[in-house]
Amino acid sequence: MTSEKIVDGIWWTGVNVYTNDLFEGIWPIPYGVSINSYIVKGDKVALIDLVKAGGGGSSENIIDQLASIGVAMKDISYIILNHLEPDHTGFVAHIRELCPTAEILTSERGVPLVEAFYGLKERVRAVKDGEELDLGGGKVLQFFYAPNVHWPETMVTYEKSTKVLFPCDAFGSFGALKGCIFDDTISDDDRHFFENETLRYYANIVATFSTSVINAIKKLGGLDIKVIAPSHGLIWRKDPKRIIDEYIRYAGYMSDYAEPEITVIWGSMYGNTETIMRAALRGIAKEGVKVAIHKVPETDASWVLASAWQSAGLVIAMPTYEYTIFPPVDYVLELMKLKHFWHKKVLRIGSYGWVGGAQKHFAEKTEKMFWDHIGPLEYQGAPKAADLEKAEQLGQELAREVKAIPAKRKRGAGGEG
Ligand SMILES: Cc1cc2nc3c(=O)[nH]c(=O)nc-3n(C[C@H](O)[C@H](O)[C@H](O)COP(=O)(O)O)c2cc1C
Ligand SMILES: [Fe+2]
Ligand SMILES: [Fe+2]
């Protein structure tokens, strides 16, 4: 893709990365990811957010894109770094060589990070919260600090005449762009695809910072926003409110119960835990509650988290392994703890062989997560008829409790996922 015009004087320029490398070294991106960069051209030219270094020729790509709209590197006066994570800044040292006179602008907390990551100190300037930068030709940029959306130094940039917001990671998603960059030029299938990838991105990357997301949305509430141009995923020009509402809903899942759905996370070595899990599923089915079932480690934690983030109910089914939690389930629990998967209704079930241990560690690990526990149900070896009956009852009880939770805003067109 070459540079694409968003509004007069503003273009998308970026890369679609397809790689077997994991995003942040953790999360699979089998459908790729876009790293969006933006050009704002008044009398002076500003480049907002960059791309990572190297990766699939991304830096060379962006130079060509700039050339396609008649912008040479030496024409760039300002490089605006909303967020210092290297997916958006890896290119900065190289770009400094290509346009040595350009000034790098970032937040006060961003300045030391530019030096720490890239050794750059010259012509690096901190902008203040609310500060404006007049590019001439009618284009005026305004900066607003948005700490901890995703890193502490994060800020957003707003172009006042066109009302375009550049919020960096906020409102972003996994999934490379498929030839269209706007929310109103994609098919319903692709809309569904991006909704799923937005939720997965949120649960994997942003969840921990949900309070900061809400604070940032409140802080920017007074702005008239016509277009949202994030650093990953689609540009929202038809319906920017839609992605803001989605983010408010996702962020709300940290402090309240999520959707009346159940995610089953299970792992088993020899099937004794699977048998009880199936009994719990029969109980859930009696209540007709929507359920998603993820076996670990076969399903990557990335998708398990996406599903669990939006479910009010969880079934955690795993055996004891070396006196503690079966490790693949433990890994998912660790991530959920780290990422504030709070306020869930949870049934934990599983088998042990000798004296158990998983339940003790499970209770300790989840102690501060505001979980309402149903059960637990543990048994030695294979489940007996009474265990299976009990699991079915507990599954039904969980489903009833989950059903009593009012659904949040319905997901949009094609938005089941
Ligand atoms: C490698 C390994 C480690 C185990 N460690 C423990 C243990 O520490 N405590 C215990 O009570 N049972 C332990 N067990 C027994 C399992 O918890 C038991 O076999 C259980 O039924 C397995 O459930 P599954 O069939 O769902 O895999 C262990 C089994 C294996 C294979
Ligand atoms: Fe980030
Ligand atoms: Fe990012």
List the helices and strands and how they pair.
Layout: E1 4-7, E2 10-17, E3 33-41, E4 45-48, H1 58-68, E5 76-80, H2 86-89, H3 92-98, E6 103-106, H4 110-118, E7 124-126, E8 132-136, E9 139-145, E10 155-159, E11 164-166, H5 188-206, H6 210-219, E12 227-228, H7 240-255, E13 259-266, H8 272-287, E14 291-295, H9 301-309, E15 311-317, E16 320-321, E17 324-325, H10 327-338, E18 345-352, H11 358-365, E19 372-380, H12 385-403
Parallel strand pairs: 4-5, 5-6, 6-7, 11-12, 13-14, 13-15, 15-18, 18-19
Antiparallel strand pairs: 1-2, 2-3, 3-4, 8-9, 9-10, 10-11, 16-17
Helix pairs in contact: 5-9, 6-7, 8-12
The structure holds flavin mononucleotide and fe (ii) ion (2 copies).
Question: Which keywords apply here?
Answer:
417 residues, alpha/beta, Metallo-beta-lactamase, Chain A, Rossmann fold, 2 domains, 7-stranded mixed beta sheet, 5-stranded mixed beta sheet, 12 helices, elongated, binds flavin mononucleotide, binds fe (ii) ion
Small molecules held by this entry: flavin mononucleotide, fe (ii) ion
Q: Based on the coordinates given, report the CATH architecture of the largest domain.
A: 4-Layer Sandwich
Question: Uncertain spans, ≥5 residues at pLDDT below 50?
Answer: 412-417
The DSSP helix count reads 12
- Output the radius of gyration: 24 Å
Number of strands: 19
Range of helix content: 25-40%
Description:
Helices cover 34% and strands 24% of the residues. The chain is an alpha/beta fold. The chain has two domains: 4-255, Ribonuclease Z/Hydroxyacylglutathione hydrolase-like (Metallo-beta-lactamase, Chain A, 4-Layer Sandwich); 260-403, Rossmann fold (3-Layer(aba) Sandwich), CATH 3.40.50. Strands 1-2-3-4-5-6-7 form a seven-stranded mixed β-sheet, covered by helices on one side. A five-stranded mixed β-sheet has the order 8-9-10-11-12, with no helix packed on it. Helix 5 crosses helix 9 and helix 8 packs across helix 12. The longest helix is centred in the middle third of the chain and has 19 residues, at 188-206. It is elongated. Mean pLDDT is 94; it is low at 412-417. The site of one fe (ii) ion has 6 residues, from helix 2. Residues 85, 87-88, 169, 231-232 line the site of one fe (ii) ion.
